Amino acid sequence: MLFFFGAAIGAFxxxxxxxxxxxxxxxxxxxxxxxxxxxxxxxxxxxHYLRFGKGFPFGCMDTLxxxxxxxxxxxxxxxxxxxxxxxxxxxxxEIPQLFGxxxxxxxxLNGGFAALLIxxxxxxxxxxxxxxxxxxxxxxxxxxxxxxxxxxxHFIIYAxxxxxLSEKKRSLKRRTIEYALFGFLCVSxxxxxxxxxxxxxxxxxxxxxxxxRIALKHFIPPVSFAVFSLVSLYLYGAFSTPVNHAGFAIGGxxxxxxxxxxxxxxxxxxxxxxxxxxxxxxFCYLGIxxxxxxxxxxxxxxxxxxxxxxxxxVKAFILNHRKKFLxxxxxxxxVAVAVFPEADLNTFTIIPDFIPQPVKKLGGVFRSNxxxxxxxxxxxxxxxxxxxxxxxxxxxxxxxxxVCVALELTDVAPYIKEKNEIFSGEYGYFCLLDRNGPDKxxxxxxxxxxxxxxxxxxxxxxxxxxxxTVNRFYFARDIDxxxxxxxxxxxxxALSGHxxxxxxxxxNAETLKEWEDAPLTIEKVTDDLFIGYVRK
Length: 536
Fold this sequence. Notes:
By secondary structure, this protein is α/β, with parallel strands linked by helices. Helix content is 55%, strand content 6%.
């Protein structure tokens, strides 16, 4: 029941923030016209898989980078949602938009798991529901939803924390299965959740080892997590086509040490300057209410730590409170990984980057490491709640926590209002090829001779609606070398007098000069955009 009521609060928060218009599965103009380029990529990848997805591995399609096969893992289209929608395609309209419902579902799960997590450390159902908005309306969730939608599913982090904090004694078999399921869940939403959940699961294993004698059996659950994660990636087709990892290194999108109190203009506290523009990836503003809560808890904790050190009871405390100690270790670990490879405070460098590039490239798969600040923030919030609730008299604790929640809601309210105005707007969208070029039914492939983000999305959406293929799309890991080689083959045939007659070619002024000797009919769209084709 607590989970249900927490989920209801989460769903209400979603509707308050985003409204109901985006729940219409036939309405996708808000994504195509009103939102960030990234969410258009995710939605269009979803559409292409739903309409043209291949058999095995699941999650593969060849219409976005024809003739090459790519996976929805690389379009960040929420692999699990894609496969589920494919299974129930018969019950959906031809062009369904499910991202609105995914957002509602995510907020509900965030709320349900947040309530359980708070209850785990307080044992108080009222406090769990009262404080759940601190997790449900966290700034990173609001920032990510409908910008990088899958990364708003923070219920995975909450569930991993809850799993670690559980006092249940689980058998080896059960833990092995549950670790494997965590791996599958992470990959089904977004692979960046793998290391986040993985740290909590490894800490759970460490706790088992501290309780028992270290044995080989303790390594079986973490191995099952790793193996099943790789198997899940394989099943979703992540390894179906070699992608380009060259040039990617961890630390390109790290977090700034000001992240907990830097609102970037989205909260009541003033925006602070970051050293690098890319440090927006580590955005994790806590809000005034949570910051106050953390300060109060910090004062209480400092007093208790002084008593522990003076009494020489540190070792005994660690042994008797292993999970509290491990939570503290995880907090500092997540912060360290998030700010890697250098520690910056505003525009100042506190610890310079001295890490060799080969070392940074080892973690290049997770180059946006600033995101790893999120679990640290939730550890901080949960620990603050726990400390205030346990070490302050109950009535006083309730007053303090109510004040903190009220301040938090006051802080986030303008951001919610801004979001609501955006998502309540009316949007329209059109495809360029509906207004330009020849009869679309006469051509099967759309060839872009240059790279342009908006045009790629426009063409790919047109292709999804009209069962065409495109040669170029934006992926989380590119195959640009293969795409350019294929483009050269198209150009050679065209310049030799034999252009592909089933292709529509997009040129800008520069590439048009390279193809000007090809026997193509050219139509001007703008001063720097042209369509070429073989007249039929």
